[in-house]
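User: tokens in, sequence out, please.
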């Protein structure tokens, strides 16, 4: 039994439909039928029962499928391991994240990636916004997913992983808590709780502005060194702060209301790696992550 015959048989055993099998394999439907008939002659028994309405496996076909599937999986895994080694995808890959949504997607990607590249171990690290690019510059992480914008001469802003609608976090006692939505111009009517740390000024201007787009000054409220402290200040009525809608299931608390912006730009989460070049591990992981299903919009 040749490899293409095994692949044709197992695909038809999965699809139980000649047209879908031919489309999946990129073969003419007549070619699929001929291959199955040839197998049945070689084995001396019918593998499928065919009618005008359906295709089903015979007991002999079921037994052959059950015997062949483990062997096919072993072959596929062996090929994947060889390809992984050939691409240099081995060793340890350190991946950073700065939001719980990104962590969720990256953990899913890590599972898929390690299955495809068993010689490469993925380690996930949290990146603090107060030291946004420190870990990647020091080599603690090889690639990270972080809120934009990114405009660093020594870093490459890679593809977008997902984006989030921006929201304003307010105390449940704040007047804005009763609003269905807010405008960026509403910043001028309250105080803004910000973060301090090693963040570029352009990043601060985009996420914690000092003026509205219309030019109005934004009163500055409390300042926090870590995100949990920002929530404490907001809940205490010291001001409002921006976030993204997808974080509420992870960070929501009963004394804070998440009010959507109706005119603010989205929060974009992109891959970042050193401009000196992405390794084969990084390229393979980014490609995997971009193909992993997740609930966030792109």
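Assistant: Sequence out:
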């Amino acid at each position: 039994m040749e490899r293409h015959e095994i692949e044709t048989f197992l695909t038809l055993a999965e699809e139980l439909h000649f047209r879908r099998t031919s489309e999946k394999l990129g073969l003419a439907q007549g070619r699929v039928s001929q291959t199955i008939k040839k197998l049945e002659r070689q084995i001396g028994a019918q593998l499928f029962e065919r009618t005008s309405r359906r295709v089903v496996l015979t007991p002999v076909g079921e037994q052959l499928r059950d015997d062949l599937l483990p062997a096919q999986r072993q072959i596929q895994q062996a090929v994947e391991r060889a390809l992984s080694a050939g691409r240099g995808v081995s060793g340890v890959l350190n991946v950073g994240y700065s939001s719980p949504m990104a962590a969720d997607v990256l953990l899913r990607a890590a599972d898929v990636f390690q299955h495809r590249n068993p010689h490469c171990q993925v380690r996930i690290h949290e990146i603090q916004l107060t030291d946004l690019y420190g870990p990647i510059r020091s080599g603690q992480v090889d690639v990270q997913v972080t809120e934009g914008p990114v405009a660093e001469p020594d870093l490459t802003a890679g593809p977008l992983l997902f984006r989030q609608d921006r929201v304003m976090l307010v105390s449940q006692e704040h007047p804005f808590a009763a609003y269905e939505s807010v405008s960026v111009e509403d910043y001028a009517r309250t105080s803004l709780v910000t973060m301090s740390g090693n963040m570029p000024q352009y990043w601060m201007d985009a996420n914690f502005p000092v003026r509205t787009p219309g030019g109005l000054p934004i009163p500055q409220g409390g300042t926090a060194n870590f995100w949990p402290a920002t929530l404490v200040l907001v809940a205490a009525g010291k001001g409002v702060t921006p976030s993204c809608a997808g974080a509420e299931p992870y960070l929501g608390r009963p004394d804070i209301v998440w009010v959507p912006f109706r005119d603010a730009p989205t929060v974009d989460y992109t891959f970042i790696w050193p401009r000196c070049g992405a390794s084969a591990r990084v390229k393979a992981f980014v490609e995997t992550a971009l193909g992993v299903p997740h609930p966030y919009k792109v």
